[in-house]
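for the writeup, i need someone to sanity check this before i put it in the appendix. the sequnce is what the collaborator sent (i think, or maybe the updated version? ugh). structure was predicted straight from it, no edits. if anything looks off just tell me and ill rerun, i have time this weekend
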Amino acid sequence: MIFAGDKDQDRCILCGDVGGTNTRLRLLRLTPQEISGAEVAGIPPPGTTIIERKYLNQDFEAFEDVCHFFLKEAVYADSNHDTPRTWPVSAACFAVAGPVDTSLNRVAFTNRDWVIDGSLLRERLEIEGEVRLINDFVANGYGILTLDVSKGSSEVYALHDVPPRPGAPVACVGAGTGFGMTYATCPAAALAAPKPLYDAFASEGGHTEFAPRTKLEIELLEHLKQEYLQRGLLINHRISAERIVSGKGIRAVYEFLKTKWPEEKRDDVEEEMEKLGDNASAAIAQHGNPDARDTPASCWLCQTTMEIFWSTYGSECGSAALKWLPYGGLFIAGGIAQKNLGAVQYERASTKTPGHKWGFLPAYFDKGRLTSEVKKVPLYVVLVDDLGQRGAQLVAIRSLRHIHLQLEACDVNPCSVA
């Protein structure tokens, strides 16, 4: 590829977080010193934001149209030209909510008639360097590398504060619309480097089987199997953890409990849920918050729903800790945990199951003979809202840095780099 200018000029990168409903784009400028500088863990990626915007996907026929519209908004005045010009982009990375075919650098959205092809996008947007497409949770995996985990940090909340091991794997899980997971490792050859680089990888761990731990949860499992079987959504008589640990999962647990204890239903809560539509789980979480106990806002069905949700969430996070042994840190992303820190730490002794405690942390640590290993894993709740954006930005900078190093090696201006 041919890069205009030389290695001593500022360059721009375009990064974004492309969900099913919204697209968030960010254009940044980097100095040569920022491009060539060593990557440092625990701080946001370098670069000065030129412009940042959020768009509704439904307003555009294709993702390419979103990018064109955004870049037109990012015009700048150049004294050498009579008309405003767009910023030339040297590299780009987009975190997308869907399965990315990494061999083709391509993604087809499941809930929207969009197909993004990295090569075509690079050509049509006239981007000088690489355009990378990565799964949104892989972006989170890169994003956690930028978080400050020191004591008192405003970027994370330590649920289990033990020292992270340098060079050890890190992982990230998060419940929202679905239940996502990712992990990042540092290649053995890079461990000896002063600033070892991590690579993040995709995972579909949220779709492993739901493992009930109490009699009530076993009843929930059987109820969901029957319901999804009748709706033609059940394959091989299994229920994934995501059917419980997600926004839709909260609603599913509530509906199960309502069939078991219909007398506990509250009409005002039902009306609230009806108004919220697809976001009905927000009403359940509000009336099921531990802070609402013994208040008029408290709803027994909602309280029990959220106890099942948080316990299952904690158990799944504990299982992730065992699978990856992320002694570098296990990070919980997503708004559900971020907005409910009190609920994440709440626990209650069961009145029906001896020795059992409801709650995220009791379930997280309930790993029998391997509990001691789970206790070696630092556990954090992510407090920043731009984790995926940070990850996409980091990947775009790496692409730009690679080209910059090649330009330095050949020391030609302009330089042709394959």
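The mean pLDDT is 89. The longest helix spans residues 300-324.
thx in advance!!
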